[in-house]
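seq:
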Amino acid sequence: MQFCTRCLYTDQHPLHLTFDKHGVCSGCRIHDEKDVLDWRERGERLRIILEQYRCRSGNNYDCIVPVSGARDSYFIVHTIKNVYRMNPLLVTYNKQYNTAVGVRNLANLRTRFDCDIMTLTGNPEMVKKITRSTMRQFGSIYWHCLAGQTVYPVQMATKLKIPLIVWGAHQGVDQVGMFSHLDEVEMTRKYRKEHDLMGYEAEDLINDFDNITEKDITTFQYPDNREIEQVGVRGIYLNNYLRWDSRKQHEMMIAKYGYETALQARTFDTYNDVDCWNYSDVHDYIKVIKYGYGKVVDHACREIRLRSMSRATGIKLVKKHMVAKPRNVKLYLDWLGITENALHYIIDQHRKTSLWRRNEKWNWEMKDNYIKRLIQSEKDIKGRAVKCSYRTFVKTGKGKSTDSEDKYILIGRGA
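struct:
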């Protein structure tokens, strides 16, 4: 297992990092571009692109912006609407793992930015059927969220003839350095399938064993190439044109628009994914089982690269959070209608034998313990790591809501 000498990623990353002769990963090297690119010039390139899609007649929207009750939704809408003065249509896929915080954030987003919003809520029983199948076939309880979030904006773009979709950060650029910012990579069906959807399109889920039919997967079907070409649908990523700093952006939105944050079970980050009781909880627990590391590693690597956290501090936070128990297992089991034994049996089928083994007590243990090796890697670096002070993430107070906080929320009133 090779560790990056700057961040905490290894050569086991599922998106396939590469390392240079100094042991620095491709994600860190591409991140270095943020310090040398002329972001004023790149912002002007964004302005030129947006102007090409502005609806001069005023009888349609200028672009589509996918949003949720968390992540960088506020910053993207702020940039497109208030900085570049575009008229966006907001679209959101209801992931059905909603928190009260996320419901309030989405309600506040609708109100503060004065934008129209379209929401897709799939039939809950269909979504559960799909989730049982994806959990069984490839160990994902989050596939339907990723599929819905990435396909609904494209469906609306083709149906409403709004060719431009504006996304936030491209994971392949910002996390693993798969592309340079200068490549100005755009959204493609191929990248979505291979990386976002783990190699499975909606059509691939149709099978008799899970009783999934063509009707069941309609919600998640990508428009065909002919429809996309007729409208000229194009998806651009803001992080190719703006210096992306998720923490700084969130804190600006907290101060400016009242974005609400929350503590999460398995990470120190209180800004991202607060709309979902699953993502940094049960879903992240399964991520460790499948890949040997958790979301807290992604968050720590991001902060280390932004020089707001030392590598040593990142290791301490990973040690603390990656072993934390998920809080919402029972809520997930009740939602899906399965037992805990069934959950563990199914997920165990997706443990990588290269990472895990049974010990003498028949308990699972890592063959090559990530945390132990991580600690050793810090010793091996011998002072080469960047030193910087760490400032904790902001925890805001709770807003008022008419929704019950101890029950599953499908659609909520929010603020």
